[in-house]
Amino acid sequence: MLFPRYRRMLMLCVLSLALYASGAIAGEEVQTVTIGFVGALSGVSESFGKGLANAAELAIFEANRNPFKINGKRVQFRLVRMDDRNDAERARRVATALVQAEVVGVIGGTNSNTSIAVSKIFADAGIPQISPTSSFRRYTDQGFRTTFRMLGIDDDACIYLGEYVVKELHAQRIAVIDNGTTFGVNVSSRFSEVAREHGGVIVSRDSVSDVLMNFGEILRRVKAQDIDAVFFGGYSEQTSMLAKSMLREEVKARLVTSMNGIVGSSFLISSGIAANGTVAQETGMPFNKMPGWKKFEADFSQRFDFQISIMTPYAYDAAHVLMAAVRQANSLNPHKITNALHEISFKGLTGVIAFDAVGNPRSPSYTIYEVQNQKWKPMKTNTMR
Questions:
Q1: CATH class of the domain whose range is 154-283+366-383
Q2: DSSP 8-state assignment for residue 264
Q3: Per-residue pLDDT reduced to its tens digit, 126-181
Q4: Which residue ranges does the chain devote to CATH 3.40.50.2300?
Q5: What family does the Swiss-Prot or TrEMBL record give for this protein (predicted)?
Q6: SS3 of 90, please?
Q7: CATH class, 29-151+290-354 region
Q8: Could you tell me the pTM of the whole model?
């Protein structure tokens, strides 16, 4: 087919230009170092997954402009994208393919379920895996030395959100809905516990499919129970549909979520006026508090026709810290790169990145946002010590 052939020719041209710009054509030996990306690049989470992959690609482009040498040869990184479609079994197959491709490290998966599904495959191969979005505690509790995450744990995030909803939003009667996934059930259960500890009442608890898009039946039932808030433990696309369903059913309660990546323009665009009043807690500090944010935003927007989500900077930093570990290890051996990741302290876009003994960030932050006049406004940031 002409199009794939043209695409391959274009990629070769781009690679040739990159090598020329780096000085590699001027008689220097170059070694191509492959980094894997595994995540949802099609299906309901396509936009989210591709945005993360694009962020990793941007980091690699930047690193290749200032290459370093290992064993006398210039290092040129490249990213291999693999689509797991948010499916655990497919994720295992593509993870095996990345191992066979001899990648030095992997960015992904893009949710907790798929990240957990592939972690043993990478651990058995000794390949470091950095998930930019996984927040479920079990991901790093498995005991694999190769497993790292960029986000704080969703259990810990609920400590702040549950108190905020009851004490500062004065929401006493709360309906809780999860989407049946490991993430959704876990975060909903922890939020419910914390809300009760602070005097909130969980008036109903529902579990739905992770592909359900019509919440009308549940909302009509909970609306009659005089609720102050609806907490949803699920993914970003469903959250948008829930917000629109609440507007359509005239449910006046607040919509509350945690750690599902909805803070960004995509949710505002897809939800319209239904977004107003939504409260969401996400990892990290607000964008405008990140050092170097304006440059990142400009560079990303210039290169990619994708919206920036709250998780996008973490994929960018995950790629940068992995490449920094390659440089610190002065080796392409994945075992030595893993050791370097356990020792590294890297100043990234999202702050100083350093991992504890099991691969969690050492001092994660969580910020609570609210949509006001169809704009996200940061309300409160908490940092764990």
A1: alpha beta
A2: B
A3: 999 999 999 889 999 999 999 999 999 988 999 999 999 999 999 999 999 999 98
A4: 29-151+290-354, 154-283+366-383
A5: Belongs to the leucine-binding protein family.
A6: helix
A7: alpha beta
A8: 0.84
